Amino acid sequence: MGSDSSGVVEFLPKQFWHLDPVYRSYAKLYIADILQLKHYSTDEGAFAYQNHPINRVDVIGWLVRVEERPSMFYYGVDDGTGVINCCCWKSKNNGEPRSMLNGEGTSLSDIVLSKVYKYDTQESCLELGDVIHVRGRLKCYRNRLEVSASYYRKIDDPCCRIEIHRMEELPNIYENVYDLPFVLPSHVMQELKVQNEEERTGLTREAQLIDRLQNYLQNHLADRHTGIKNFHLNELETLDDVMAIASCQCLEYKNEGGSGSAPIKQIRNIIKQAVLRLEREGTVYRSGMIHDMYEVVRTNLPSRLDKTILQILRSDCHLSRYEGGCHYMHVMDRLHEYSDFQNVSVDTVRMALLRLEEHSDVISATSKHFIPVN
User: Fold this and answer.
1) What is the C-alpha to C-alpha distance for residues 204 and 251, in angstroms, rounded to an integer?
2) Which of 48, 87, 191, 279 could serve as 40's disulfide partner, Cβ 3.0–4.6 Å?
3) Helix-strand-coil percent breakdown of the chain, rounded to 5?
4) DSSP string, 69-113
5) OB domain spans which residues (predicted)?
6) Are 205 and 194 within 8 A, CB to CB?
7) What is the torsion angle, in degrees rounded to the nearest 10, for the CA atoms of residue 95, residue 100, residue 105 and residue 110?
8) % of the chain with per-residue pLDDT over 90
9) d(Cα 190, Cα 195) in Å, to the nearest integer?
10) Is 37 exposed, middle or buried (0-12, 13-18, 19+ CB in 10 A)?
11) What is the pTM of this model?
């Protein structure tokens, strides 16, 4: 059976149980080990073997107790290490065809089906000494674990090959899976470490500041009353609301700031990352004339970029090689021929094409090719 680990294992919060493959499968454990399982320390939705959360098991054993009740069979299954009770539910209406239950079954097919179902029902009540394979969820009934079966069947194996294979299989599974404590992936551990550090210090993570600044800029630039058509990255540092977000105490830069002020590296990086996200969304695009200059795209008004793309499609789609539509990469290459659009990214082009399609100015011939409407 499974070896007892003398080391201290770390139990996982329920939100990380799905990362353990043992939790998502039917655990093949010795019955003696199943009976010794205790509720998981962080949540009672599962039972713990080492720090593996387990709520479903797969057992094979001999029947040593058989009880038939109105809605189920109650079997005692023994695999040689212990006996566990398995609750195996009968099929609804005992498998009788609905027409037979209503007294309407007079056809030959209904009579034959009724005989078959009665035969299956008689066979489903297994006898002492039969070998049974059971899969199901663990539940605690009267302070004792038992299996509520979702699947069970009798095993006809006079040579006991299946039972022998199971007994040969289990030590290997224990050694390589169950007896090894589950360790969270490194990226999850890093995320947890950052969260704990954030709670301990009260500082905000850089990603959260970027999200906040992105949302603010998106609303600020979309407001037609601001009248902003373009901006330079350095100009954003003159806006009080932008600086209020970008200069918050940041967890990643906690050792770089001096006298309680945020480092300029943090402020500029947060602003840059927020603007890059807006560029990927198609809200802004980089101008080709001045370094770090961005043009604002307004969804309610056609921009210079939209007009230029439409002009390219109208001129190139008349050519025989593009009569099926222009690929968006071709559109980007053509845009780069213009000095104003030398730095336009592929994400910006795709968003502009989708925007033109929403306004019924272009039609998508495929997911990558576009044709002007007129």
Assistant:
1) 6
2) 48
3) 45, 20, 35
4) ETTEEEEEEE-SS-EEEEEEEPPGGGG--HHHHTT---SHHHHHH
5) 57-154
6) yes
7) 20
8) 28
9) 9
10) buried
11) 0.54
